[in-house]
Amino acid sequence: MMTERTYAPVAWKGITQPSKVCQKGCDMRNAGPPRLLCVDDEPNVLDGLKRILRHRYQVTCAKGGTSAIEVLRNNGPFAVMMADLLMPGMNGVALLEQARGLAPDTIRILLTGQADLPAAIDAVNQGNVFRFLTKPCSSGDLFQALDESIEQYRLVNAERVLQFTETMMASLDARDCYTAAHSNRVSFSAVVTAEAMGVSPAQVEIIRIGAKVHDIGKIGIPDAVLRKPGKLTEEELDVMRLHPQIGKRILERVDRFHDYLPIVELHHENYDGSGYPYGLKRDQVPREVRIVHVADVFDAVTSGRTYRPSLSEDQALKLLQVGSGRLFDPVVVEAFTEILRSRRVLNEILESEWNHTRA
Ligand SMILES: [Fe+2]
Ligand SMILES: [Fe+2]
After folding, report:
1. Total of domains in the chain
2. Residue 80 · residue 103 · CB < 8 Å
């Protein structure tokens, strides 16, 4: 059972409300199987659909068009909405047309009888429906149409997320060019580390985007602190340390960014609980965040700033080794170190090949 903890409110620029994170620090609202909205005027049909589909999807049922619009407004977002064509009051075509305006990203499927094929084809041609299924349809056809629709939903969302990420990073880059370049490097090395650790492709994608926006909260840090050429004072460090929570507040307003919130909010937590903002330790912090944490620190210390020189790769690796099990997840440090060593070996081979070719 998930328990919740609260952290003390910090009074600065709107960061005044206590925020809740689950014990593992992750927002679970969008977790789990894809969300599906089924609409029919027959309760028996809805019960049957729910029985078949509930093992693969989070199924919500609405009886009739008016109720479906209400659910869409108040309980979205849904990956897919599937509606019967023949319903009293609002028919399926009118409903899906209205749904397109309300939730344009939700993929729409129409269920229709043979006799109503022309209406279904019209709906597809007008762009109101992604697929139609003729009744009776086999469970195989049903699952295939749903899986294709969910894939389409993911593609559209991934594209939007990428565009939005680039826009946000460009606005941060305009104020602090270090952070955008740093975030791209962190994303790259965190992804390579995650792949070496056997993290699933879906989680790797979360790491890729999450690492790109991990410092987005710096948008809310005043120039006097963010762009200060010298070392920060303790008070200024306190302001800078708000960036994970500011980042979370910015992104939590956007549904499709919920998967990345743990990385944004918790990337400064240390393995032993000595980090911020909550002092979470070990697996209270999700693994993808622990991976980004190592890549983040490595990049930060190997990048020179005006107020401190950069460390060499060897010095930075030493720092990771010393902090392994204390500040950093030892499994992540091991994978990260191994990647750097392999890259070096590869570079040495390439260099000697190159010299050999030139000789
Ligand atoms: Fe950060
Ligand atoms: Fe960072």
Report:
1. 2
2. no
User: Which residues are paired to 164 by β-bridges?
Assistant: none
Integer Cα distance of 193 and 337 in angstroms: 9
Most confident of 39-48, 191-200, 347-356: 191-200
Q: Residue 251 belongs to what domain range?
A: 176-350
Indicate the burial class of 214 (C-beta count within 10 angstroms; 0-12, 13-18, 19 or more).
buried
CA 228 to centroid of ligand 1, rounded, Å: 16
- CATH of residue 64: 3.40.50.2300
Give me ligand 1 centre to Cα 237, in Å: 12
Same domain flag for 331 and 293: yes
Residues for the chain: how many in total? 359
In a domain? residue 2: no
Residues 6+ apart with CB under 8 A from 195: 204
Centre of ligand 1 to C-alpha 8, Å, is 20
> From the CA of 264, which ligand is nearest?
1
Give the number of the ligand closest to the Cα of residue 267: 1
Is residue 149 within 8 A of residue 80, CB to CB? The reply is yes
Residue 171 lies in a domain: no
> 222-240 burial by CB neighbour count: b if 16+ within 10 A, else e?
eeebbeeeeeeeeebeebb
> Whole-model pTM?
0.67
Q: How far is the CA of 219 from the centre of ligand 2 (A)?
A: 13
- Give the C-alpha separation, 23 to 269, whole Å: 13
Distance (Å) from CA 30 to ligand 2 centroid: 25
Among the listed ranges 97-106, 197-206, 306-315, which one has the minimum average pLDDT value? 306-315
DSSP symbols for 312-327 = PHHHHHHHHHHHBTTT
